[in-house]
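User: My instructor asked us to take a sequence, write out its structure as tokens, and then describe one feature of it. I'm not sure where to start. Here is the sequence I was given:
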Amino acid sequence: MKTQVEPLFSVTARDCDWSYTRGTGAGGQKRNKTSSAVHCSHRPSGAHGYSEASRSQLDNRRDAFKKMGESAKFQTWAKMEMMRRTGEALEIDRWLENEMRKVKIEIKVDGRWREVKPHMLVDDPNDFKIEYLAEMNDD
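Assistant: Let's start with the prediction itself. The structure tokens for your sequence are:
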């Protein structure tokens, strides 16, 4: 017996903004008079897809949606959305917060770098650096 898996989320044409323009290139008078080229913009991610490969607006609409879904911007958004919905984003935030405790901030005082204490202020922005403390291999 197969177990049924429910999707975390789905993206449909309703999640996108669509615009139509006239295609360019060869195709004759019909292509010059009809708005068959399609722009697809996914609102939440900002990803875009464009197609003018066919004289059919419906085919171009499908192709533009597919290109939008394959774009790096959409893929990044989809990964972040999955992490947010599964709770992985919270784990990453906790890990990052823990790692940031390892950051040491120093300022230059009398030609020497010293760790910043809460009572110290930096007058010259060129006199500070941030150093990430991590194990380093000296090869």
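For the description part of your assignment, you could build on this observation: The longest strand covers residues 103-109. Try explaining in your own words what that tells you about the chain.
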